[in-house]
Specification:
Layout: H1 16-26, H2 32-39, E1 60-62, H3 65-83, E2 88-91, E3 93-96, E4 99-100, H4 106-111, E5 124-127, E6 132-135, E7 150-158, E8 163-164, E9 177-179, E10 182-188, E11 205-209, E12 211-213, E13 217-219, E14 222-224, E15 227-229, H5 230-233, E16 241-243, H6 255-261, E17 270-272, H7 287-308
Parallel strand pairs: 1-15, 1-16, 2-9, 16-17
Antiparallel strand pairs: 2-5, 3-4, 3-13, 6-7, 6-14, 7-10, 8-9, 10-11, 12-13
Length: about 300
């Protein structure tokens, strides 16, 4: 890379005071007034409630994929109860050398693996009509069906003979229906670039079919989006979000704090679900991060000179 363009204007954040806080945060220079400002958004300190709209529908950002999966499963179970339907769980099909895994104990163990180890194809995907989902694979880039795209699950099309109530996980209720051969899911994707309506489908309703990865797993390329990781949220602008700023002791990366705080346009668009330590706002960029910024700045100056001639 020998050409760099530097964006000098923050286009997402509309709240000036909050923008100044974020600028200090990037340098690890937040002051106590910044800390006190963020404390006004902590659940219990502010007037908002997680049980009321819009916060009961806002995604929660978490640092670890495993925690996000647990929260998504619990939210799907709760949502199924709320709408009065049995939970439906899509079961991935795992293969070894092109053949289904036959070792009796192995299939269940494979289904419990984190999707970060299975090329982002979940072993057990709970689905409830109306729930938020995220596409996890690039399906059709030119149509906007890309990794990270948000949508709303509407309906599952599947082989009727593949449904079973035999439990595959203690996480889900006993009346859960396990679908072993899903065909495709109908997802409403508002930001899709498809300009025509598919036959017999409502506008923006897109069929997302099962995919197969080199891990030798066939599954729907979807995950629940009640909760998403901070890594997955990068590049997104969220209308409302619930975040957690309480870090584990071994975490000292400034991005883990900056990413969740910078996903919204205004401070009023986020709430923090528990108290956090002031020192997390003073994490400094690492030496490697500083070196990379300096390298890019140098390339930016050279690019300006090259194209000004």
């Amino acid at each position: 890379m020998n050409c760099v363009v530097k964006l000098t204007q923050q286009m997402r954040t509309e709240d000036l005071r909050y923008l100044q806080l974020l600028e200090r945060l990037r340098e690890g220079q937040c002051n106590f007034e910044d800390y006190e400002l963020l404390l006004t958004r902590v659940v219990g300190e502010s007037s908002v409630s997680l049980r009321e709209p819009p916060w009961n529908q806002a995604p929660m950002l978490v640092f670890r994929n495993e925690i996000g999966t647990q929260l998504n499963h619990r939210s799907a179970i709760h949502n199924a109860v709320e709408v009065g339907t049995n939970l439906m769980v899509c079961v991935a099909q795992d293969f070894c050398k092109g053949k289904p895994v036959e070792e009796p104990a192995l299939p269940k163990k494979l289904l419990q693996l984190s999707d970060s180890k299975t090329e982002h194809l979940q072993g057990l995907l709970p689905l409830v009509p109306g729930m938020p989902v995220i596409i996890t694979q690039n399906i059709a880039i030119e149509l906007g069906l890309i990794n990270g795209m948000n949508g709303i699950f509407r309906q599952l099309v599947y082989d009727l003979d593949s449904v079973s109530t035999d439990s595959l996980s203690k996480t889900f209720p006993v009346n859960t229906q396990y679908v072993h051969k899903p065909i495709y899911a109908l997802i409403k994707i508002s930001k899709s670039k498809i300009e025509w309506n598919l036959e017999k489908l409502q506008p923006k309703l897109i069929p997302i079919s099962i995919m197969e990865q080199t891990f030798q797993r066939r599954a729907l390329p979807l995950v629940s989006a009640y909760s998403i990781t901070t890594h997955k949220s990068q590049g997104q602008t969220l209308n409302k979000v619930v975040i957690d700023l309480k870090l584990s002791k071994d975490t000292d990366d400034i991005a883990t704090i900056y990413a969740p705080l910078s996903r919204v346009k205004r401070l009023s668009d986020l709430i923090i679900w528990r108290h956090f330590d002031y020192k997390v706002l003073q994490i400094k960029p690492s030496k490697s991060q500083v070196a990379e910024i300096q390298r890019l700045d140098k390339l930016y100056m050279e690019t300006q000179k090259r194209f000004s001639e």
